[in-house]
Design brief:
The chain contains 13 helices and three strands. It is mainly α and 273 residues long. Strands 1-2-3 form a three-stranded parallel beta sheet, sandwiched between helices. α1 crosses α9 and α4 packs antiparallel against α8.
Length: 273
């Protein structure tokens, strides 16, 4: 979606090509089942805040959990500031006046814990586990903000799907576009965006008759998340060395992601990109 917007709305950022995977720009109510009936009220309850609440809002808890996860993904002991924030959160408001303001691990305790944690963190880093955790934290970091937005009344994406379609039809100008669709993806709108981009090609040819635009759509096996379901490269390579390529792909569930990479590589080679 972001690539569609950049290519359509910012003429000063020319795009030689775009690869659009699992394209989806449905309205929220269509993309998220029971959004208005369940999701929005649930998020509003999580984000509930005010002087009468016994604890701070649930989004504060999520943000703290993400910060703790970030420290863990780095193989570090949480900072004293983070520990103080956690202590403040778990202390009921009625007891906050008698709770200590600063919480700090004694330096000897922190040094001892670091001595224990560092070897394990190094081993997990070498095994490729910490990078995966770091990527997971990057995703989770967006959830508290999303909950707050929905609780504050957001009911659809901005810009709206109709605005995106209008912009793309009027000004999409990438010379080459690859649409990768997955056969078990109920959210996919690759066929719809292909039709719209071909309309945009007609509009562009009216302005510049000599322009050449290539739009391809390929259907692969998999679902909406197939492109991202893959282990770190070093883990995959070790597994393939031990188990063989096909068995490793099956056991670690990245055969569909690997097929995606092969299709992207074919397309890039074809366009000499």
């Amino acid at each position: 979606l972001l690539q569609i917007l950049i290519t359509s709305l910012f003429p000063d950022t020319p795009r030689a090509a775009n690869a659009l995977l699992s394209y989806n720009n449905k309205p929220v109510k269509d993309a998220v089942p029971l959004f208005e009936e369940v999701v929005a009220p649930f998020f509003t309850a999580i984000a509930a805040r005010g002087n009468e609440t016994w604890y701070p809002s649930g989004t504060v808890a999520m943000a703290l959990a993400v910060r703790l996860g970030r420290a863990a993904a780095k193989g570090e002991i949480p900072s004293n500031d983070l520990l103080a924030d956690v202590a403040k959160f778990v202390t009921p408001k009625r007891l906050s006046s008698i709770a200590p303001e600063d919480v700090a691990l004694p330096s000897r305790v922190r040094d001892a814990l670091t001595t224990v944690v560092d070897p394990a963190a190094g081993a997990l880093e070498s095994a490729g586990v910490l990078p995966v955790l770091s990527q997971a934290v990057d995703v989770l970091e967006q959830i508290p903000l999303l909950v707050e937005e929905v609780a504050d009344g957001a009911t659809d994406f901005n810009p709206t799907p109709s605005s995106v379609r209008a912009a793309a039809r009027r000004a999409y100008r990438a010379r080459r576009t690859l649409l990768l669709q997955y056969d078990s993806d109920p959210l996919d709108e690759s066929e719809e965006i292909e039709e719209l981009l071909r309309e945009a090609e007609t509009v562009m040819r009216m302005k510049r008759p000599m322009i050449s635009i290539d739009i391809q759509r390929r259907v692969l096996k998999g679902g909406h998340a197939s492109p991202v379901l893959a282990p770190p490269v070093d883990i995959a390579e070790r597994a393939e060395d031990i188990l063989g390529a096909e068995t490793a792909k099956e056991r670690l569930l990245y055969a569909e992601a690997d097929a995606t990479v092969e299709e992207l590589a074919r397309w890039l080679d074809e366009g000499q990109l």
